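Two records follow; treat each independently.
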Amino acid sequence: MIQMRSIVKRYGEGETAVEALRGIDLDIAPGEFVAIVGPSGCGKSTLMNLTGCLDQPTSGQYLLDGQDVAHLEDEELSHVRNAKIGFVFQSFILLARTSALENVELPLMYAREQLDGRDRARTLLEEVGLGERTHHLPTELSGGQQQRVAIARALITDPSILLADEPTGALDTRAGLEVVAILQRLNAQGRTIVVVTHDLALAEHARRIIRLDDGAIAADEPVHAPRDAEAELAAMAAEVAQP
């Protein structure tokens, strides 16, 4: 599904040029759950932006479902994003004066697809545990609930790939685990999940961890026994319930 060969991303020209990515070779198969980790400035966000067709490499080849998207025009990239990729960000990016239901529907306006949009949005909110919060504004929701709205919004166009950039960075431990549990359920349903994070605890819930260092892949390893977010939530609930 995702194939990158010799991907370079350079900012600036001449002596002041900075290489954010230096010759990335990467394959992500359909249905994987991958965490991309590394220190600040290592190229994680740049790699996420390229993977999500939000930016283009300076050089190299990027095949997405067999299509070379590395050097497409902006309109073509927009079409690819709308058709194949959903995004979840640390800051939620919800419209403040718009209900949860309307926030989830929003991508359909850009995709010019309105048929059954409201029913689909309502179903997705129910699937992330917010069936009773459909008409609440973001300010009436907790941070964890807002992130779940953002996940539902990312899924409204039924993308095959979900990209999440620090999805638990603004959440407390319990709310973060609730979000990770949703990501694990989506992955179990066959959706490809790619998470960028500095949080190794979150990364350990993935099935594969890619470590970046100074714009290059320093390690790429499977997680043989991923942590189970649902089980951790259950253990937290049991601990609270103890007299």
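The next record belongs to a different protein.
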Amino acid sequence: MTDSRARRRLDVVKEPPKPVYVVWELTLRCDHACLHCGSRAGVERDAELSTDEALGVVQQLAAMGAREVVLIGGEAYLHDGFLAIAAALRDAGIAVAVTTGGRGITPALAHAMREAGITQVSVSIDGLEATHDWQRNRRGSYRDGLAALDHLRAAGVPTASNINLNRKNHAELEALYEVLRGTISSWQIQLTAPLGRAADRPDVLLQPFDLVELVPRIAALKQRARAEGITITPGNNLGYFGPEETLLRSIAAEDRDHWQGCQAGTFVLGIESNGDVKGCPSLQSAHYVGGNLRRSSLHHVWQTPRLRFARDRTVDDLWGFCRTCPFAKTCMAGCSFTAHAVFGRPGNNPYCHYRARDFAKRGLQERLVPATRARGVPFDSGTFAIVEEPYGTRSIVDRSDVVSLRIPK
């Protein structure tokens, strides 16, 4: 969810909460229809902010102390005011980055993005060609994404990439690095969470026990990339206090960083294209939108309970395994939107390396089984039950093999 430079700053922030890092959805219009898309992007929202309204938001962000804004969609460049908004952010002293699928980035647009002051563009590449095109739901998407990286580099725009990791593409991780290594300076790896369209395809999701083997692979790849001048960062829903935690979270080799809890509404802010505000761009809108910028100031929305939830949360708000974890006070159950996407509320997150290893040491693993379906609206999710089964079980088990079936309360 966050760019490596912003993640680095958030880890060292020692000041009162403010929206340091902002992810701003300019429009829900998109030229893809990705099968994992949390926002179910494609068609614009009702009553999206106009360019003039968005320029007013820029001034509010500057007044609140924002340091970096990442423009997303849908596709941010499909908003009529895309370049004007980017330039206004730059002029307000706010670093501007973009995350994109890259389909519409021509040499001319890449040059215009540089002129508007955009400091980094991350192009989403979700596997090798066949896999990426399947996940992005459009033939030719892979080649368009690589072409976008070339156009941006030629225009002098620093480039990065990101991947949503799941059962369909995780085996291609190392091979994809070989493709990207000469093109990017940073690479973010996050897990596909059961949010939006991904909630409709639970068979594609990684299982918690997959982290036992997956996280060491990512850590080894990070070590190699570091030696080659590329920074690999984990998304907010990957990792948590396994043996590789320091390596995963640290930018430089000499650092000793680690996960410090969900920063939603503490130093992170999400803005939806109709002006709705929530503490993180991936949070379930129905549960976490704290107000709308057409009706309230950003300063007011920032203090609402729905924006403050991570600031005000204590260990007593955790439950299940996470309540008893020795890292509970620091971790606070990991990524909030991922936990909510699994169980319908935050505070207990099965996508945890420490937790998966703990179960494995006891000869067990947790499997997520769909319990209720998502409604089919942007940033929605269903719920899952947990099956505890013998470690190493690789297929859906018969009830006779199940140690216990629990639907968390």
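Discussion point: The CA atoms of residues 223 and 247 lie 8 Å apart. How would you locate this feature using only the token line?
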